[in-house]
Amino acid sequence: MTVALAPHVTLTEVEGGMVLLDQRVGRFWQLNRSGAATVRLLLEGRSPEDVATPLRAVPRRGRASRRRRACPARRADQGTTRGERLMSIPVAVEGSVPLPWRRRVTARSAAGAARLLVRLPPRRLCQVLRFVSRGSRPADAERALAARQAVVTVSLRCAGIAGCLQRSVATALLCRLAGRWPDWCSGFRTRPFGAHAWVEVDGTAIGEPGDMTLFHTVLSVRHQDRDQHLHQGRRQARRQARARRHEGRQP
User: 3, 160, 200, 237: most buried, per Cβ within 10 A?
Assistant: First the structure.
């Protein structure tokens, strides 16, 4: 029997295990080393009996605990699996900046539209944002930061401790009203586990406190030019890796 992940499930390898994202409901699941090894073996075509044999030899303290649905407040290192929403990291309420009345109207419109969009499943949300971003020009860091400050000023939800998803979507939409588009991203960190959503420009997160290099990006809607540049960089890296392997095989 061949086991495969459903199309709406995204797998990311991390140190000490792996993280799965169910894009239908926007929930992350963190697996420890035993759970990650089990998934890898099943995806390789091994039978459940073959997978269970080496796990029986592992001492009880090292075995994966029985599967349970973890509450969002539970720390990731307290269980084998970890349920975490697309946004979960608490941050301090952000301050406001003075805005002209027209800017307030557009910012409120973007925040209101974002409040509706964040109710969509992550996969559908990405499809909508990708459609909205068509025909735009890339946003620079100054414009993206100004849009973020504007939506935080007019919306308590966007400025709140759990408003990163709506804040990031509203920021991207407000940039789009000006014909620009930043890179919208969502991902997670592992220690401690937490999910987050943000916007970035040229690989730099905009207006985000803390070290954003700890986050693994799982979902993103990038500007077409940046997306093509990213894919070209990845293709070039793969070609270089193949060339190094080929040189290593030569006598």
Answer: 200
pTM: 0.71
CB 76 within 8 A of CB 82: yes
pLDDT in tens, 193-242: 888 999 999 999 999 988 888 899 999 999 876 555 555 555 666 677 66
* AA identity, residue 118: V
Site of tokens 């099943």: 42
Q: Could you identify the residue written with the tokens 């919208």?
A: 184
In sequence order, the β-bridge partners of residue 138 are 181
d(CA 104, CA 81): 42
Q: Where are the beta strands (DSSP E) in the chain?
A: 9-14, 17-22, 27-31, 84-85, 137-138, 180-181, 183-190, 193-201, 204-205, 216-221
Rounded-to-integer distance, Cα 157 and Cα 161, Å = 8
pLDDT digits (tens, 9 = 90+) for 20-67: 888 888 888 888 888 888 888 888 888 877 877 766 666 655 444 333
